[in-house]
Amino acid sequence: MPVWQQVLEEINDPNFVIICAAEDVGGEAVAGPIFDAANPTYTQVVDVDHIISSAFNFVNVPSSAWIDEEGRIVRVDEGSYSKIHTISNGDQSIEFGNDVYTPALKDWVANGAASKHVQAPTTVASNIRVHSFDQLKADAAFRLGNLFREHGEADKADHNWAMARKLNPESVNFIRQDLTLTDEGSAGASFMKMRGRYESEGIDYYRPLDFQT
Q1: Is 66:73 a contact under the CB 8 Å cutoff?
Q2: What is the model's pLDDT at position 207?
Q3: In whole numbers, what is the pLDDT of the chain averaged over residues?
Q4: How confident is the model at residue 205 (pLDDT cuts 50, 70, 90)?
Q5: Where are the domains of the chain?
Q6: Pairwise CA distance, residues 29 & 47, whole Å
């Protein structure tokens, strides 16, 4: 998030707005300190029930949508990293992110609809993942689990979260959120194992970027 603040300041355009949503059942207690440490001037939202990622059917975070001044989505559903990052965990480390997203974003802000990175409406429509009935049930189970957890019903919460993962096993959001309640956290050994499986099996962890260079 501090890097996105830097990007915002570099763009320095009052018509460009960043809205950052933390998808975390820990709520303000967990997400608030992270936001505070970044000291951002853009809008921050804490989305306990993952309503935003559900609405766009994002499978992982960070993901994004570009919305123009007319309220139209001109890009959607891709990993929105401001730069290449490296995370170390003991003897293991992973590199993630990219260095092409930020320049493309700046080009869009500067050139608007004329930017070569704006996608055609048909492309945007095809990139919005259609919810299956099981995915809709998974979202409901996830939120019901959150409600049970809020009221101290841990067993019922775990049951509904397990149901959500079974109904929508491709949701990295659900898997990583579950891992935040473990000692290893969302970027530990289980996450790295899952990411390695995705890569070895050729499963898209994110939709591949199609930025023209």
Answers
A1: yes
A2: 77
A3: 87
A4: confident
A5: 2-201
A6: 12
Return phi, psi of residue 182, to 5°.
-105, 170
Q: What is the largest CA-CA distance in the chain?
A: 53
Residue 100 banded pLDDT, cuts 50, 70, 90: confident
From the list 30, 67, 66, the residue with the least C-alpha distance to 46 is 30
Q: What is the DSSP string of the chain?
A: -HHHHHHHHHH--TT---EEEE--TTHHHHHHHHHHHH--SSEEEE-TT-HHHHHHT-SSSSEEEEE-TTS-EEEEEEE--SSEEEEEETTEEEEEE-SSHHHHHHHHHHHGGG-TTPPPHHHHHHHSPPPPHHHHHHHHHHHHHHHHHHTT-HHHHHHHHHHHHHH-TT-HHHHHHHHTTSTT-TTSHHHHHHHHHHHHHT--SSPPP----
User: pLDDT (tens digit, 9 = 90+) per residue, 163-192?
Assistant: 999 999 888 888 888 888 888 888 778 888
